[in-house]
Amino acid sequence: MPIWNEPATPTIATPHRQTWMKPQTEIRPDDWLCAQCRAFITSERDRFLYNGFSEFEFTNPGGYTFGIITFSRAPGCVVEGTPTLEYTWFAGHTWTICLCRGCALHLGWRYDGQYQFFGLIRRRLIRASTIFN
After folding, report:
1. Class of residue 52 by CB neighbours under 10 A (exposed 0-12, middle 13-18, buried 19+)
2. Could you give the domains of the chain?
3. What is the pLDDT of residues 36-52, one digit of tens each?
4. Does the pTM exceed 0.70?
């Protein structure tokens, strides 16, 4: 039977993603925002030093290279998926994908192990100071 004669497939409502963004008056110049939707993600004061560094460059098994910044907190991220050690960039730390709470853009990963921290993709973040000055 042609596809246009098939009965309509019922749709299932999906929960709306709540955009969690500080009001613009609360955004500080040292805040990091999603480059796509400008939602608040984290703050510069939440940078996390892993072995003395907070900026790294890694290449995944698919050949994609990511510049990441590590943060101790990222309240603007939603963690989705099952933690895994497969291809981890930080020995002994599982990783789970992090999405923007506002628009669901893949922003990076949360790492859990000896420490818990976020590795966020630099190119997918923007400093508030570059927008609101």
Report:
1. exposed
2. 19-130 (2.170.150.20)
3. 999 999 999 999 999 99
4. yes
